[in-house]
Amino acid sequence: MSTGTAPQPADGARRFTFPSALTVLALVTLLVWVIAFFVPSGSYERDAEGAPKQGTYRPEPSPLSFTGRLNDLFLAPVNGLYGIQDGRTGQVGPDRTGELYGVAGVFLFVLAIGAFITVVFATGAMDRGIGRLAHRLRDRGTLLIAGVMLVFSLLGTVEGFAEETLGFYGLIVPLMLALGYDRMVATGVILLGAGVGVLCSTVNPFATGVASSAAEISLGDGIALRALMWLVLTAVTVAYVIRYARRVRDRPERSLSGFLPGDRDRAEARSDSEEPPPLTGLHKLVLVTVVLVFAFMIFSVIPWAGALSGDADAAPYGWELGWSFPQLAALFVCAAILVGLLTRMGEQRFTSTFVQGVGDFVSPALVIVLARGVTTLMNNAKITDTVLHSIEGAVTGAPSVLFSIMIFVVNLPLAFLIPSTSGHATLAMPILAPLADFAGVPRALVVTAWQAASGWMNLWVPTTAVIMGGISLAKVGYDRYLRFVLPLLGILALLIAGFVALGAAMS
Length: 507
Known about the structure:
This protein is mainly alpha-helical. Helix content is 67%, strand content 2%. A hairpin with a 5-residue loop joins strand 3 (84-86) and strand 4 (92-93). Helix 4 (125-136) packs across helix 6 (169-178), helix 6 packs across helix 7 and helix 17 (400-417) packs antiparallel against helix 18.
């Protein structure tokens, strides 16, 4: 898997190359497995909803022997794919009875997306359509970047648009290359656009909704502060990506991601004054199909009742689909077949193209599986509640402004351990929200600080499937992405601290 690094020295001397996403996650898996030996196991008593009760933490012997820990390490990728969580013990394993803990649905979704995009590109409609769009927007790339990021951010703040972005790399990366940018611009447009929206979730049922419910407050509490945060942080993030994009377009040698063979060919084609060939009727039909498929995907996953009413527990409208990754995987398989039929591709060509697309996307799909496998190690070792207990003691008795900032800070390592916003909220908020009463701040402010910490960490941590899967799809090295995003992370952290401190002072 290429990372888009700079060419090797001419003298043939070997130089360090940052490991691929798969290797990074393998190392993270080993590190977390070792750390679990030194973090004491423990648990909280839980109520009927499964939430931990404040003050009930108790240490307990580790549920795993050394052999059991070895077995968990051995099965981590398997558990990451289709591990089942036992409803009684909470342990995850491939042969248990309970709910699916692995990411089999996401895994198949990525493969289906790969097949669909590959079939679409095989028709020639996408290349020609992107070429004509790039020609028309060759002097308005900034507007395109801002528009796409704003849409992704809006979807992120309303309904937690994150994993769904994995389906857009096949569209955005070629377009940005054709406009004269690099793969890092495309990565920033997608990851940071949706990520800053989730960071500033306003009515996102999977973050704000779950956290507000666990904190026993309304989803609308604190929405004014969160809306203001969303406006400011989205504007800053868009400006940051545009600034980098302009620099790379003017001076390609300053690209952080580098260019793969063929990348610059698209940029050179963009600068050609000759207008690309027109789209045929069949090309237009394929492109309309692509737009409709992605629009339907977005429609199918949004919880419209909760988003429009502001009530996280609102009964779904009759026309809501409530689809998740299994249904989306089936959608893109059917869409690929539909494109093959519309273009009269033929059985032999279609099946070979379909299989090729699946093969091309196996690597990012495995990245997502490994990322989930890391969380199964922590779950089975029962070290998550121990981390929660240490946070409980760290924030008690602090002044309101300091307390609010501390909630943001202490949630950062927890967000690393639990990349899932809903899982993080379910575990942390029943403990953190009551602490706000002692500090004299609204519980809604704790929700805002918590989701900001979760969103901030999920912009870069390697345990997040969205990050590692995204950069793998974009073929950008993780080290290069960190260099790109680090200054923005510092800016966002300062802005977040300022907003939560302002909220505490005003309260």
